[in-house]
Amino acid sequence: MFDVKVKDGASSGTYSFSMTCDGNCPVATAPVQIQGCPDETITSVSPNIWFAGKAYKTTITGTNFITKEKATKLCPVSKVDATATSSNVSVSDVTVVSDTQITATIKPEKDSPVEQGTVTVDSETSNTQIIDNEVQWNNQGTLENIAGIFATGAPQQAVVGQQILLTTNPNLPGNITVTDSTWTVGGTKIDGYTANPADPTSASVTELKDDDLKKPNITFYWVYPTDSPVTYNYCVTIPGLSSDDIASKLNCSLTEKATFNVTGPGDAQMNTDPYYAVTLSQLIVKPCQSGSVAKFMVYGSLTGYFEPQCPNMGGDTGTPGVLFTSPGSSSPSGTYTFAQKVNHDSWTRTYTAGTSSATCSTTPGLDGRYPYPLYAEGQAADAPGVELFPVNKKVRRNFAATMYLLWTSSIPNSIPVPIGYQDWHFQASTTNPSAPTKQSWTTPVWQFIGTNGDFVPSAPSQSSNGYPTWSALAASNCSTVSAEEEEPQEEE
Amino acid sequence: MPKLTKILVLAFLSTVTSVTGLVAQTSSEIPKFTLTLTADNPEVILGSNIEIWIKITNISEDTLTLVFSREDNVEGGYQYEVRDEQGAMAAKVAEHNPPMGGVGSSTRGILKPGDSIGSGTQISDVYQFDRPGKYTIQVSRKLPGMPLVQSNIITITVLPAPPPPAQQ
User: Fold this and answer.
1) Mean of the per-residue pLDDT values for chain A?
2) Other Cβ atoms within 10 Å of A209 Cβ, number
3) What string of DSSP letters covers A196-263?
4) Which of A236, A418, B109, B159 lies in the 20 to 30 Å Cα band around A456?
5) Is residue B1 part of a domain?
6) What's the pTM?
7) CB interface of B with A, residues 68-87, below 8 Å
8) B47-96: pLDDT as tens digits
9) Residue A42 parent element (H or E)
10) How many CB pairs under 8 A join A and B?
11) With a CB-CB cutoff of 8 Å, which residues 451-470 of chain A face chain B?
12) A359 with A380, same domain?
């Protein structure tokens, strides 16, 4: 008796078995049949595109796979493995269904980059593709890859009003195209704010629409400071996925999440200093023209010429009706601006001749300019008045406005964000009993004056997320009322 | 003077003017702000209100001090110039009799380096656009110690009013 060991991996076939002996004796030879393991082949792997972090029930089709029933000690059940260039791929639940089909659950690790993968059945291999999320964001004009930050969860720093540009760069092979992108953005965010000094016709907030969040790249602005989560995933067409697989989003990337720590100027307040008097003032109708001075009833007390504009013409004195002051500085760095809307403006004039009267009103809108001019560094002021014509025996004005404070980050391409607003108003009248022969206007009597309520911080719950919006400039119109009619009563 | 001589004199004067133009500007001659004029509607129907927008931008490194005044629907501090297709100045709108408007405000203000402010003016309250045709509009502003600054010129086309609907 003797033992014979067939070399591992020996191919099937007919071999010659020879036996000799020591000394001079004939050689005995006999044919033997060796049955080796069958040559396995892989014809397809389905699906052969895998998202990082997702588990795929994969079907491997080929020939000569060794099932449990056909397995021998020499030829065990076909073994499946999967690898990638730089990351791990797990394989589980391997079932050799038949000599032509194997099923297995294959899962590339979550942090796998876009790279080639390989499926191996014993010594046979087939290439696959691993794909992944890669997100970039525009931080002050440069694109920064934050795929790693998405993975670690380290928060990004952003500022209210800063332009946030998020782009995706999945770096997919040419044969794979993105079919759907889905962003979610926490916090109060907008697509834009249209107020523009070049054309203050109108100002509105452009909302970030659902469709915008389905684009591969998005641009938006956060309006209020908060920790704001951002998620992103995308889908592709992966051949071989069942409807159940698609329903399970196996054609889509994992939802990546990052948090942005959005900061702003904090609890900034706008201080309002109202002047508690309506006065009779000599004001310039045409700047620096000495003959153009006229008498006005003014909220506040302003008289004379603005010295830097009209040197040696007397200089201006007095106090505006309302003085708004923004916080001096801000952290993060930025600047404060003002915008004012007229909510109501009406005035009446009673004339001596024929005792007729005129009533005028203003359609609400922007108060002439955007942004509202600075009175001094960090300050805005208003001193609304009404000219007192000699032919008038009574003049009354009722004015109400809202001054908004906005803040714009120093980061390039930033837009203003609302900080808060202050309603204010005045209503006053004066009479000229001796009109038109004599100008003897009485001290104005005011019905209300100054602020109307407290400073209101902007909030997402407010209309247009707290932004001042308008569709036109405030514009006045007048009409003459017949002599027989009574003097019109103003409405607030 | 013979025609050729006239041409030579004009050419000489032109040369002198050009040479003069090479002299360095003094600081008081350098504009510190620009004016940009726009209109939302370059075409309007006869009788419509016409609004224009003036953007003043401080292009200097100094903070400018100026008066911001506004009366009725017109921004103060600017000179407005409207001409018809023949280049003639348009007629100004007559003041209402008895006077009715006369509301506004006038305060001092500043314009910091690089800052802009946009202002709207209903120019049809100042000038008459009472015939169909093209009108050119330009605004200018002068600050003490600085040269007059003029805006770009815009053209507004006033279209004839549509005929009233026919009676049934």
Assistant:
1) 87
2) 9
3) -TT-TT-B-EEE--TTGGGSSSEEEEE-S-EEEEEEEEEEE--TT--HHHHHTTTTB---EEEEEEEE
4) B109
5) no
6) 0.83
7) 68-73, 75-77
8) 999 999 999 999 999 999 888 888 889 998 899 999 999 999 999 998 88
9) strand A41-46
10) 140
11) none
12) yes
Within a domain: A331: yes
Of residues B36, B53, B109, nearest to A200 (C-beta): B53
Share of chain A above pLDDT 70, in %: 86
B136 interfaces chain A, CB cutoff of 8 Å: no
> Residue B149 sits in which domain range?
32-159
Cβ A385–B116 below 8 Å, yes or no?
no
Number of domains chain B contains: 1
Q: The domain spanning residue B112 has which CATH number?
A: 2.60.40.10
Q: Which residue has the tokens 């939302």?
A: B40
Domain that holds residue A237: 135-263
Q: How far is it between the farthest Cα atoms of chain B?
A: 73
B12 domain residue, yes or no: no
On the 0-12 / 13-18 / 19+ scale of CB atoms within 10 A, A456 is middle
Of B36, B138, B63, B56, the closest CA to residue A371 belongs to B56
Residue of A nearest to B70 (CA): A368
Interface ipTM > 0.90: no
Partner residue opposite A287 with nearest CB, options B51, B69, B104? B69
Vertex A305 angle, CA A302 and A311, to 5°: 150
Q: Test B120 with A196 for CB contact under 8 angstroms.
A: no
Domain assignment present for A20: no
**A373 to B53: CB separation less than 8 angstroms, yes or no:** no
Give me the mean pLDDT over the A229-244 stretch.
90
